[in-house]
Design a protein that fits this description.
11% of the residues lie in helices and 33% in strands. The chain contains 5 helices and 30 strands. It has helices at 74-95, 123-137, 166-173, 331-336, 545-552; strands spanning 116-122, 175-182, 188-195, 206-212, 225-229, 233-238, 245-250, 255-259, 268-272, 280-287, 298-304, 308-315, 320-328, 351-356, 363-368, 373-377, 386-392, 395-399, 401-405, 412-417, 424-429, 433-438, 446-449, 454-459, 466-471, 475-480, 490-493, 506-511, 518-523, 527-532. The strands form 7 sheets. The chain has a 6-stranded mixed sheet with strand order 10-11-12-13-18-17, with no helix packed on it. A 4-stranded antiparallel sheet has the order 1-30-29-28. The protein is extended. It starts with 73 loop residues before the first helix and ends in an 8-residue tail after the last helix. Mean pLDDT is 80; it is low at 140-150 and 154-168.
Length: 560
């Protein structure tokens, strides 16, 4: 179909027109409005805890084999009945058997089986550096007013003579680690330094250094606290319940107590000059043996080479140490424990080491320079002999020894009381033996012979049959009496790169009271090493090790 279109004009029709000029001008208006600020909040929600566990159930929907019938053989029942008594007898016997005592299958493959050194702290070197830097910085300052005793000095104090003298530097360089003590929390340890070369009265400089291993940053060459002293510190001991209280004794016989929580100028709580007339060998904190309460106050007990054992009470308010009681070790005690009867009864025997029992605060054990080991008591009994010739601060002295145990052939270097039993002790001597004693018996229950003299030993805080020892030939020994009663299970050199074994000797070893996998040692080079103990020696065994230890020491459980 063909369509064609053409243009036409229609007259009279309405035409719509649009005038564009009417909208040439535009009207625009701007304005601001205020709106509420947007608020965003983010909160954590507590979700429902879910726990999944798999259990085994019987599938009752399965089709049972018709050929399967319940087992009900009279012969089987008769057999089980006949062997029932013997099976129960064998099971009861296994409960008291020690064939596999201490053995546990260790399924973990990543447990450490060797003793490793975690860190080395340079105590002597750090003291020398601190001493020199402190002296240089205070060379042009006025002397501070000190209220401390002659023994204790602040690390920033300075005397009349030049502290930068060569003799002072030599004194610090020749210092050994004489003692180490952990605080009750196991996070802080203190180490004392002393010089072994004394001709007469001590004129050396020494110090107590403290490191906090619980901090994130520990500088092995910079202690967290340093306390300089004007004489050699022979022994230190932290308070059993106050982690900031530290007791110490010196070569010159002085005793003092520090409160590390105070400012440096007021850390000295109390001090007594010349409490002993000879070097102090041991410092201990014990409960007041005269008190029958569980919360009895702690007393500070010291022993010295003058043969005296002194007990002092601490008054922190008046800042005084008051002598409460005194005992003395007489040579007649040595004659009772040996075949010799020629000893003079009133002659005083030098004490080389002392240990106290945490489970029995009334008892303690002394070791002498002549090899004697003596069980003693703080309680005065009617049989206690009063030594009228010895008095001090109006305190009458009594004879300390109650029982003389089998003697060593050399000086007793250390005694450690078992933390698990109030009758068992370990002793070490220069005669290359370690002896295990029941303090109710004269003879040693076990004698372990070593190739080197033992200078210190310490019980494990978690294993009754594990203890550590250090030798005078630079070795750390770990013993486990479950594995061997004659030789150590681990022996490591404290300085493997030393040219000769006698170039350095171990002086002290201490287990951490809270972390049983850590032990610390000190040596004659003024170095302190922190050791990681193998897992097998630190985990508590399911078997009763204490019963095995009592069996070795011939202790009857019925008389506990």
């Amino acid at each position: 179909m063909n369509l064609q279109f053409s243009d036409h004009s229609l007259e009279g029709a309405d035409v719509v027109s649009y005038d564009a000029k009417e909208h040439e001008q535009k009207y625009v208006r701007d304005c601001l409005i205020q709106t509420e600020p947007r608020v965003f909040a983010s909160r954590a929600t507590q979700i429902i805890r879910r726990k999944e566990i798999q259990i085994q159930t019987n599938d009752d929907s399965r089709d049972l084999d018709p050929d399967l019938v319940p087992l009900n053989h009279p012969s089987m029942l008769k057999f089980l009945t006949s062997v029932e008594d013997s099976i129960f007898e064998a099971l009861e016997e296994n409960l008291t058997s020690y064939h596999f005592a201490g053995y546990e299958v260790d399924w973990s493959e990543d447990q450490e089986s060797e003793v490793t050194c975690v860190n080395t702290f340079y105590a002597s070197e750090s003291i020398l550096n601190t001493h020199l830097s402190s002296s240089q910085s205070n060379a042009n300052t006025d002397e501070s007013n000190t209220e401390s005793s002659q023994f204790y000095q602040s690390k920033t104090s300075h005397g009349d003579e030049d502290d930068l003298s060569t003799s002072s530097a030599v004194m610090f360089e020749n210092s050994i680690v004489s003692s180490i003590s952990w605080n009750c929390q196991g996070s802080l340890f203190a180490a004392s330094l002393a010089n072994t070369e004394h001709e007469d009265w001590c004129v050396h400089k020494s110090a107590i250094v403290l490191w906090n291993i619980g901090r994130t940053k520990v500088d092995a060459k910079k202690p967290h606290n340093t306390i300089e002293c004007s004489g050699c510190v022979t022994d230190i001991c932290f308070h059993p319940s106050n982690p900031a209280l530290l007791g110490a004794g010196s070569f010159n016989g002085e005793v003092f107590v520090l409160d590390l929580s105070r400012d440096e100028s007021s850390q000295l709580v109390a001090s007594v000059a010349s409490l002993h007339t000879e070097p102090i060998c041991t410092v201990h904190w014990i409960r007041d043996p005269e008190s029958n309460t569980l919360h009895a106050p702690y007393m500070l007990v010291t022993s010295g080479q003058d043969g005296k054992i002194l007990m002092c009470s601490l008054n922190e308010i008046s800042r005084q140490l008051t002598l409460v009681s005194g005992q003395v070790l007489l040579s007649e005690s040595m004659s009772r424990s040996s075949s010799s009867r020629s000893a003079i009864s009133d002659a005083v025997l030098g004490v080389s080491v002392m240990c106290s029992f945490s489970l029995d605060p009334t008892s303690f054990v002394l070791g002498s320079e002549t090899g004697g080991v003596f069980k003693c008591s703080f309680n005065h009994t009617p049989n206690s002999r009063i030594v009228h010739s010895i008095t001090q601060q109006d305190v009458q002295f009594s004879s300390a020894a109650q029982l003389g145990l089998e003697s060593h052939l050399g000086p007793v270097t250390w005694i450690s009381a078992s933390p698990f039993h109030w009758k068992i002790i370990l002793t070490a001597s220069a005669d290359c033996t370690i002896r295990l004693y029941n303090t109710l018996q004269v003879e040693a229950c076990l004698v372990i012979r070593t190739s080197e003299p033992i200078s210190c030993l310490d019980w494990s805080p978690v294993r009754p049959m594990v203890f550590a020892a250090v030798t005078t030939h630079n070795h750390l020994l770990l013993f486990d009496l479950l594995s061997s009663r004659s030789s150590p299970t681990h022996q490591v050199s404290m300085h493997p790169k030393a040219r000769t074994a006698t170039s350095n000797f171990g002086s002290v070893v201490k287990f951490n009271p809270k972390r049983s996998d850590l032990a610390i040692t000190g040596d004659s080079l003024g170095q302190i090493k922190l050791w990681s103990i193998p897992h097998l020696l630190t985990k508590t065994s399911e078997s009763n090790e204490l019963e095995l230890l009592e069996k070795i020491c011939s202790i009857d459980n019925s008389i506990h």
